[in-house]
Write a structure and sequence with these properties.
The chain folds into three domains: about 55 residues, no CATH class; about 100 residues, Immunoglobulins (Immunoglobulin-like, Sandwich), CATH 2.60.40.10; about 45 residues, no CATH class. About 35% of the residues lie in helices and about 30% in strands. A hairpin with a 5-residue loop joins strand 6 and strand 7. The N and C termini lie far apart (about 75 Å).
Length: about 200
């Protein structure tokens, strides 16, 4: 009996304590609060800690982080680009690594960007002078190329219309053999009559 009790006590001490709350940590770059639970002097305590998730494109200097991704756009989009649109295209953001508060991106350098196919530097910077340079690739939009940003553009709407038309066309092509078999095996008048009776119930 003593051996069984000792074994049970050993097994219970091997169960790990949960360090974080059940909330999963995000994968997007940023600084996020997480609840840490621990036991001290027999009391369960909780404390909020901040966890910084750094992406491939994240630059951290001191306690400020900035993140932006390279992006693709058409020459027509370059002609209408604004700082706000460039921030949207690149998903640029800046924040404090201490508590995750947002920092404003004060500067967007679009001076190199041209409405001619090529790769150009675009630089985003904070008030503290921390900056991140990304590539802006300018090229013609290709149907089905999801890399092209379509904020405020009709390109995405036409893309979905073409996709819908192709889907309907494929559905008709796939349904045609079924309809041929169905109509060749019976008299069309009989089928129409059966359908009418079915829907009139």
């Amino acid at each position: 009996m003593k051996k069984l009790a000792l074994l049970l006590i050993l097994l219970l001490t091997m169960i790990p304590l949960k360090a974080f709350s059940e909330t999963e940590l995000p994968t997007e770059p940023g600084t996020y609060p997480a609840e840490a639970s621990y036991i001290e002097d027999g009391k369960k305590l909780q404390k909020t800690v901040y966890v910084t998730v750094k992406g491939e494109d994240t630059v951290i200097v001191g306690n400020i982080a900035i993140d932006a991704k390279s992006f693709v756009l058409t020459p027509q989009q370059v002609k209408r680009i604004t700082e706000k649109k460039a921030i949207n295209y690149s998903e640029a953001k800046a924040w404090s690594t201490i508590d995750g508060t947002e920092r404003i991106i004060r500067g967007v350098d679009l001076s190199e960007l041209q409405p001619i196919e090529g790769v150009y530097d675009v630089t985003f910077s904070t008030a503290g002078g921390i900056s991140k340079t990304v590539n802006a690739t300018v090229g013609e939009a290709l149907l089905g190329n999801r890399d092209f940003n379509s904020y405020d553009d009709s390109f995405e709407a036409s893309y979905w219309r073409v996709l819908l038309a192709i889907s309907i066309f494929l559905a008709v092509i796939l349904a045609t053999p079924l309809l041929i078999v169905l109509f060749s095996s019976r008299n069309i008048v009989q089928i129409v009559q059966e359908l009418t009776d079915f829907f009139s119930r």
